[in-house]
Amino acid sequence: MNKEFPKDFLWGGALSACQAEGAYNEDGKTLTIPEVMKFNPKNDRKITKQIQINMEMINEAKNDNDIIKYPKRRGIDFYHTYKSDIALFAEMGFKVFRYSISWARVFPNGDDKTPNEKALKFYDNVIDECIKYDMKPLITISHFDMPIVLIEKFGGWYNRALIDLYLRYCEVIFNRYKGKVQYWVTFNEINMSVKAGAKTLGILNEGQPNYEEMLFQGLHHQFVAASKAKKLANEIGSKNKIGSMVAYFTTYPYTCKPTDALAMQSDDQMKNLFFLDILNKGKYPYYSKTYFEKNNIKLHIEEGDLESIRNYTADFVGMSYYNSMISSNDGEQLELTAGNVHSVFKNPHLPANEWGWQIDPVGLRYTLNHIYDRYNLPIFILENSSGFIDKLNDDFTINDPYRIEFLRKHIEQMKLAIGDGVKVIGYTMWGPIDMISSSTSEMTKRYGFIYVDQDDYGNGSMKRYKKDSFYWYKNLIKTNGEEL
Fold first, then answer.
1. Contact, 141 vs 184, CB < 8 A?
2. Which of 51, 57, 230, 280 would staple 312 via disulfide (CB 3.0–4.6 Å)?
3. What pLDDT was estimated at residue 342?
């Protein structure tokens, strides 16, 4: 087995439009869910709480142009700084740059007769800038930035009409970037929908008794849309590769009790595998049907839906990996800690970052083997990192050995997984430049190799400074993972 990283391994980084771009109301763009989410400075870092978004909250935000209390409206101004930022990524030697296109820029009214040319020109420029540096652009089509107009006009993905609107959007960008973009991801971390239905599905929780059913119906529409997007991508460009993506919630049984093992199996199925089984195997798994029956969930599935899902599955498995969790049949005895999108039970054998997210490098190797064994498809690690508090020194340097140590240990485990025989084709570290946090809307929680001089309230010069980890990652890419 190959004990080294493949020669064509795709090293790089990943950003999202809704956290980096800013320019929330420029060149025709309309509001998205992240831009109506307020920053809460009193946020409890140790527990993850989902903000309940309703129409009253949306209407309040629509009448308020503030960019301080709504940080994702300003982002890090990537809309205007993309050239210099991408140049810094190129200096590190990126082979790939993952970025997302904002649906609300391309179709500001959701159902426009023609796409917004100013938006497409901006993404032309971003993609061309990547290609200029021999950097492959990897595009996420929908990344946690549900357009408000699609909620107001259609009720989000609960409405089947969004399938055709999404495909129209896909057709525009597939044709526009034919021959330039090879790798596409249909929906970012699609399994987040059950916990964050507003920003992923545009389905608001207004107290409906069948809200969970509505979420799964919206998911069904996304599964159909993903399969039809795959078909469309194949028709437009033979080299297009379409990936699924989940945030993998790796879990272990709290004890060796069989009941804890069953709890772990159930968590893994409905938090992770359900989504990948549909997108990569092409069918609803048996255990999901049992779950639906137990929870009185009845899906409306039209003729041809299951055939489309079966015939047009994803080409690779995309995943983010941040933290693991534990499962138990008796959760009363366990302590909660924060995690990606939702709180998890604390594993007493793992350290955590300052936000309570547990750090588990070995879990990445375990997860890669688990996924590859089940799907036998190439795996692309699309997000991996951890948030830290960084200090800008008087000489404008940033010493961040903790970030280097976190990434080193995870990349070591990725290398071991490749040695196990797992086919991993790329690694786009999350947040190579600091940006607004998705979960907390703060700037203090920093991921990047590049420091952005901006605080939680938008104060600062916005200048970019290289951290110690910048040079470490540059050397890692140069040596293709040999010098960790």
1. yes
2. 230
3. 66
5 vs 19: CA distance, rounded Å:
31
Which is the catalytic residue, given 21, 35, 383, 442?
383
In a domain, 1, yes or no: no
**Is 234 buried (19+), middle (13-18) or exposed (0-12) by CB count in 10 A?**
middle
> Looking at the predicted structure, is the pLDDT value of residue 338 above 80?
no
Is residue 189 part of the annotated active site? The answer reads: yes
Domain that holds residue 387: 10-478
Surface-to-core class of residue 169, CB atoms within 10 Å of its CB (0-12 exposed, 13-18 middle, 19+ buried): buried
Q: Total domain count for the chain?
A: 1
Tokens of 221: 């529409």
Task: State the Cα angle at 128 between 432 and 188, rounded to 5°.
Answer: 50
d(CA 416, CA 419): 5
Task: Using DSSP, state whether 251 is helix, strand or coil.
Answer: strand
Which is the catalytic residue, given 129, 189, 213, 442?
A: 189
Q: How far apart are CA 129 and CA 132, in angstroms?
A: 5
Per-position DSSP letters for 404-422, written without gaps between them: HHHHHHHHHHHHHHHHHT-
Query: Which tokens in the block code for residue 482?
Result: 């040999």
Domain containing residue 129: CATH number: 3.20.20.80
| pLDDT, tens digit (0-9, with 9 covering 90-100), for 202-242 | 999 999 999 999 999 999 999 999 999 999 999 999 999 99
Q: Amino acid identity, residue 269?
A: Q
| DSSP type of residue 185 | E
Structural domain includes residue 3: no
**d(C-alpha 107, C-alpha 433), whole Å:** 27
483 is a domain residue:
no
Q: Give the C-alpha distances (Å, rounded to integers) separating 275 from 39, 156, 212, 308, 406.
A: 30, 19, 16, 15, 28
Q: Report pLDDT for 48.
A: 58
DSSP lists the bridge partners of residue 288 as none
179 contact partners, CB below 8 Å, separation of at least 6:
237, 239
Active site residue 129: no
> In 24-35, which positions are buried (b, 16+ CB within 10 angstroms) versus exposed (e)?
beeebbbbbbbb
pTM (predicted TM-score): 0.95
Q: Are 451 and 465 in contact (CB under 8 A)?
A: yes
CA 430 to chain centre: 9
Three-state DSSP at 152 gives helix
Question: For residues 89 and 70, what is the distance between their CA atoms, to the nearest angstrom?
Answer: 27
Q: Is residue 4 part of a domain?
A: no
**Residue 41's Cα: distance from chain center in Å?**
24
Determine the 3-state secondary structure of 243 from DSSP. Answer: strand
Pick the more confident residue, 44 or 314.
314
In the 8-state DSSP scheme, what is residue 347? P
Alpha helices in 241-345 (DSSP H): 258-268, 274-276, 286-294, 305-311
